[in-house]
Amino acid sequence: SLYFKVPISLAIGASIISVIATSSGAASAYVRDKISNIRVGTFLVLFTTSGAIAGAFLEPVAPARIIYLTFGTVLLISIIPLIMKLGEKVPKNVKNAPLAEKLSLNSHFYDSESGKELDYNVTGIKSGSAMMLVAGILSGLLGIGSGVFKVIAMDTFMRLPIKVSTTTSNFMIGMTAAASAGIYLFRGEVNPFIAAPVAIGVLVGAMVGSRILMKIRGNTVRIIFAIIIVAVAVEMLLNGVGIRV
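^ thats the sequence. predicted structure below, dont judge the formating
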């Protein structure tokens, strides 16, 4: 929208399509390597898709500046618990929530750093689900994948390992974006000549990124993610005060 002078509605439509491409490019590798928690993702996507549909309908009338300022601030605050857990491969002393027990949401994943299978439990289902609903609304409103909010929900509230949180988030963002993409298509706000090259570019990037994630340490993932949160938060706050970046 800023560099190519694309109308904001078409930019949001293209962004939604690119989010689907991003998820498609990386999710298959994460699912194949059994790092993504499919049960958790499938359960939580009920809330993100509901929010995405609501957000897409609200987009024409929502006060975008207030949304940017609010969630930019929330993101900055959310960095604190993320950084406090540096060095933590698998959250300790986590007891399965009753619903997590019923749905068998606890699982395990192969940690390339230690060369071992690590087991983990899942808690905070209610707070995590509420955060997912908010993430879905943001996705539909702003044309973003809102993966940052999904990772925060799973890492902070549901106590999943950081690699599981990031890969499961990637698995979910495509479905969340697809829920609102139909509405943007119906309104004629997806231009294929804009969306197609954007989707191809992010698809290649996602495939490369998925290979890198498999090889780096959990601490490194957490630090990179914290940097991304700061960047996204600053961008949101600047957009909120009318400065486009």
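Residues 14 and 192 are 8 Å apart (CA to CA).
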